[in-house]
């Protein structure tokens, strides 16, 4: 077993931190490590928290951590937000409030900055979640800004997806347009101390009537004022209700299946890409001269390189050397 996997199984937080760095740096040993921790995963409740910047996701995460710790639960947090106080981007006051958790061994917070980009932000985040799961946290909170394909993609690893909205923000239309309505399991109307709450609730309900009219789970709406610590109990209650529903209905299993399927494909794509780049680096670069001099057009050159690569991969050791030769010489 990979030494870090062994140490993670013994709840060694430094090993977890190192393992996350391994994943972030896209190190050679990463697949070995992930393979070894895989059997230890599958127990935690993954909760995604998404919403516009400033909606109050970090404040809610912070309050939720405190709330869950009081229930005796351990919490892992992955913040995918460059402006998150977890990554030092927000107001000093927020960071100070958050700081209390850094010394608590039952809480582990990691922010995915641009550091997550070596192996791709989405993949790195998901792998970090798996590592935290293997470590044994009861709940894993994933904070993302609800825009963009990679955020949507990250969210899909979650058992429960909470979408955070604010009154008076016009969020509902955005959420609807971005396709987030479909994947939401729960809506949080945060900043419920501000005006416009009844209007937002009415808009949400009518959108839900359309989008979720025949869905087996109608996402509940919870009002919170995170700065006053209001609504946290109900929020957690609804999250647990959804988790229970999700397990009972088979929804969780279905999502896990889809998610794992996607992760396998992502690994294949990423590893193939790496091989391709390696091969590209050691390749004869005469095609560059051919393309720049105009003796070969860029598209024929690309097809030739592609044939060369695909040929080498799939035909290796199958006695199809002639086929390979032909694509090397290229007719194009
Ligand atoms: N009035 C009010 N302000 C809030 C509430 N929750 C968060 N905020 C403020 O909204 C701002 C953005 O919060 P933050 O948690 O960083 O949002 P994030 O970008 O979604 O993570 C901060 O200044 C918070 O103090 C709330 O319930 N009511
Ligand atoms: Mg934030």
UniProtKB/TrEMBL annotation:
GO molecular-function term, one example from the UniProt record: kinase activity
Keyword Transmembrane helix: no
InterPro entries with a match to the protein in the record: GTPase/Isobutyryl-CoA_mutase, GTPase_ArgK, P-loop_NTPase
CDD domains from the UniProt entry: MMAA-like
E.C. number(s) listed in UniProt: 2.7.-.-
The organism's place on the tree of life at top rank: Bacteria
Keyword tags: Chaperone, GTP-binding, Hydrolase, Kinase, Nucleotide-binding, Transferase
Gene3D superfamilies: P-loop containing nucleotide triphosphate hydrolases
Assigned protein family: Belongs to the SIMIBI class G3E GTPase family. ArgK/MeaB subfamily.
NCBIfam families, alphabetized: lao
PANTHER family membership: LAO_AO TRANSPORT SYSTEM ATPASE, LYSINE/ARGININE/ORNITHINE TRANSPORT SYSTEM KINASE
This protein's name: LAO/AO transport system kinase
């Amino acid at each position: 077993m990979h030494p870090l996997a062994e140490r993670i199984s013994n709840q060694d937080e430094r090993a977890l931190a190192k393992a996350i760095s391994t994943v972030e740096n896209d190190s050679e040993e990463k697949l070995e490590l992930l393979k070894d921790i895989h059997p230890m995963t599958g127990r935690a409740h993954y909760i995604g928290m998404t919403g516009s910047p400033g909606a109050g996701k970090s404040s809610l995460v912070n309050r939720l951590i405190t709330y869950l710790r009081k229930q005796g639960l351990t919490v892992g947090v992955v913040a995918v937000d460059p402006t998150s106080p977890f990554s030092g981007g927000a107001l000093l006051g927020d960071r100070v409030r958050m700081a209390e958790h850094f010394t608590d061994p039952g809480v582990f917070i990691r922010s995915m900055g641009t550091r997550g980009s070596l192996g791709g932000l989405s993949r790195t985040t998901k792998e970090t979640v798996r590592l935290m799961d293997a470590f044994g946290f009861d709940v894993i909170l994933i904070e993302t800004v609800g825009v963009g394909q990679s955020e949507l993609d990250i969210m899909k690893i979650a058992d429960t997806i909470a979408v955070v909205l604010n009154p008076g923000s016009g969020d509902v239309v955005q959420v609807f347009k971005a396709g987030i309505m479909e994947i939401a399991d729960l809506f949080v109307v945060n900043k419920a101390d501000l005006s416009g709450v009844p209007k937002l609730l009415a808009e949400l309900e009518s959108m839900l009537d359309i989008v979720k009219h025949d869905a087996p789970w109608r996402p509940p709406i919870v009002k919170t004022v995170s700065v006053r610590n209001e609504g946290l109990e109900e929020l957690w209650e609804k999250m647990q209700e959804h988790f229970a529903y999700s397990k009972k209905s088979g929804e969780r299993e279905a999502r896990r299946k889809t998610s794992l399927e996607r992760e396998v494909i992502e690994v294949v794509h990423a590893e193939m890409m790496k091989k391709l780049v390696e091969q590209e680096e050691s390749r004869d670069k005469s095609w560059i001269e051919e393309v720049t001099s105009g003796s070969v057009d860029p598209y024929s050159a690309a097809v030739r390189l592609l044939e060369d690569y695909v040929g080498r991969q799939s035909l290796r050791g199958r006695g199809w050397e002639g086929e390979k030769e032909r694509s090397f010489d290229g007719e194009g």
